[in-house]
Amino acid sequence: MKSLKIAALAAAILFFAASANSVFAQGPLQKEIDFTINHPFEMSKSNIVLPAGKYILYQIDENDLDLFALYRNNRMHAPIAMVRTTRIDYTGSSYPGKDKMLVKIDEEGPVLMPVINGWNIAGSDGWEIIAIVPDRERMEMAGSRISMKNDLHQSKLQKDRVVVSMSTFGF
């Protein structure tokens, strides 16, 4: 009789432990990159200039780790673009030491323009942008004045004046 009580108690403990484990376990988290840039910029492969401001890149599907949605200011509305990426593999070399947006200055157009080509995550791989599908109507609704890069007529950009800050979640 005593062994039956011990077995029932053990079964109850295992049941509660398994239940607690499933309650506290976190499944795959979608990644999020928040960034702010102080200058109008272009996302690589888009030929569309976005205004300075706060943006969010959000991994929209835990089964497609290379597809991100681009939001302006917050995620309260539909994304202004979909961003397809590919991983930058750093296994043969050292992983990046800090989070960083990969920004280059495009010097070929009528103005010098910062272009975001991807991002690195500290201690992990990076992501390189390979395609952008903008939602032009959503961009305009979000307050983004979009301009085709070739239509811009503004003063030349000083490389040292572009400031991009970023924070990451879920990595």
Descriptive terms for the model:
single chain, 171 residues, alpha+beta, 2 helices
Q: Can you lay out the helices and strands and say which pair or pack?
A:
Elements: H1 2-24, E1 32-37, E2 41-43, E3 48-50, E4 53-61, E5 64-72, E6 81-88, E7 100-106, E8 113-120, E9 126-134, H2 136-141, E10 147-148, E11 164-169
Parallel strand pairs: 2-8
Antiparallel strand pairs: 1-4, 1-11, 2-3, 3-10, 4-5, 5-6, 6-9, 7-8, 8-9
Task: Tell me what you see in this structure.
The chain is of the alpha+beta class. It has one domain (28-169). The chain contains 2 helices and 11 strands. The chain has helices at 2-24, 136-141; strands spanning 32-37, 41-43, 48-50, 53-61, 64-72, 81-88, 100-106, 113-120, 126-134, 147-148, 164-169. Strands 1, 2, 3, 4, 5, 6, 7, 8, 9, 10 and 11 form an 11-stranded mixed sheet that branches. The longest helix has 23 residues, at 2-24.
What general form does the structure show?
globular
Kindly report the average pLDDT value: 78
Q: Tell me the Rg in angstroms.
A: 23 Å
SS-derived structural category: alpha+beta
SSE string, helices as H and strands as E: HEEEEEEEEEHEE
Strands, total number = 11
Distance between the termini: 51 Å
Short description:
With 171 residues, the chain is α+β, with helices and mostly antiparallel strands. It has 2 helices and 11 strands, in the order αβββββββββαββ. The chain has one domain.
